[in-house]
Amino acid sequence: MKTKEHFLEGQTLLIDKPLGWSSFQAVNSIKWSIRRKFELKKIKVGHAGTLDPLATGLLLICTGKFTKTINELQGQAKEYTGTITLGGTTPSYDLESEINETFPTAHITEALIKEATKQFLGEIEQAPPIFSALKKDGKRLYEYAREGIEVEIKKRLITIHEFEITAIEGNVVSFRVACSKGTYIRSLAHDFGIALNSGAHLSSLRRTKIGDYNVDNAITTEAFNKLLNPDSEENL
C-alpha cells in the first residue's frame, strides 16, 4: 500500500476512465480519495491528456511532484480503439449531439473502407472539431458552437502511425489507431466519412495506450477509491 509520502513525492496512476465521466471528474475523485485517506488539506493532482466524457480508457493521473511531468507525458504517442458509424454526421462528430445529416452508404464496400485508411497515414492536416475545448480569441470553440457562431478553425499537422480496420458490421466500422499528440479521433471519423463519399461519426472510443503505458495495467476510479478508503460510505 502506498503511503502519504509516496503520493506527495509523486505517483503516475493508470486509471481506466468510466463512460460518462469527464477527465476533470476522474481527477477530482482520485484527489478526494487521497486527501481523505491521509487527511491532507491539499495535494497536487492532474491528468496528462483529456478524454471526452463519451470515451473510456487510459487516463494518466499524476500526483505531487510528478505533476511536473504532465507536459512530457502529453507529448507521447497514443493508441485508440473504437467504432465509426457510416451514413450520418453530427455537429460534434460523435454521439454528444444528434445526427444532423444522412448520406448513402450502398456504394461502400469492405475494400473501399480499407483503401480509404491509406490516405490518412503519415503526417496529415486535420481540423479540430468545433465542439472542442481549444481556444480562439480567448473563448472555447464549443462556446462558439453552442451559440451558433461560425468561426474559422485552422488545420493542424498531426501524424497517424497506424489505422487498422478490425471489423465491419453493416455501417459500423471497428478500428485501431496509433497517432501523435493533438489528434482528434472524432475529426478522423468525420473525415473518413468524406473520404468514402458519405458521412460518418465516432460512435465509441477507448484509449488503450499512452507511450509505454497500457490500459491493461490500469485500475478504475471506483477500484482505486475502494483500495484507498475501503470503509468509505460511498463504497458501501
Quick tags:
single chain, alpha+beta, two-stranded antiparallel sheet, 236 residues, elongated
Describe the secondary structure blueprint for this structure.
Blueprint lengths: L3 H6 L1 E7 L5 H16 L6 E3 L7 E9 L6 H5 L3 E9 L1 E2 L11 E2 L7 H7 L5 E5 L8 E2 L2 E2 H6 L9 E14 L2 E8 L5 H11 L4 E11 L2 E2 L4 E2 H8 L8
Give a written overview of the molecule.
By secondary structure, this protein is of the alpha+beta class. It is 25% helix and 33% strand. The protein contains 7 helices and 14 strands. It has helices spanning 4-9, 23-38, 70-74, 110-116, 141-146, 185-195, 221-228; strands at residues 11-17, 45-47, 55-63, 78-86, 88-89, 101-102, 122-126, 135-136, 139-140, 156-169, 172-179, 200-210, 213-214, 219-220. Strands 1, 2, 3, 4, 7, 10, 11, 12, 13 and 14 form a 10-stranded mixed beta sheet that branches. A two-stranded antiparallel sheet has the order 5-6. Strand 8 and strand 9 form a beta hairpin. Helix 2 (23-38) runs parallel beside helix 7 (221-228). It is elongated. 33% of the residues are buried. The model has no long low-confidence stretch (mean pLDDT 92).
